[in-house]
Amino acid sequence: MSAQTLPGAPVEIDIFDEIDELRRSRNAVILAHYYQDPDIQDLADHIGDSLQLAKAARDTDADVILFCGVHFMAETAKILNPDRIVLIPDMKAGCSLADAAPAKRVAKWKADHPGAALVSYINCSAGVKALSDVICTSSNAVRVIESIPADQQILFCPDKNLGRWLIQQTGRDMELWPGSCIVHETFSEEKLVGLKIRHPDAKVICHPECEPNLLRYADHIGSTSSLLKYATTTQDATTFIVGTEPGILHQMEKAAPDRTFLPLPGMDETCACNECPHMRRNTLEKIRDALRDLQPRIEMPEDLRLASLAPLQRMMDLG
Ligand code: 13P
Ligand code: SF4
Question: What is the pTM of this model?
Answer without folding.
Answer: 0.95
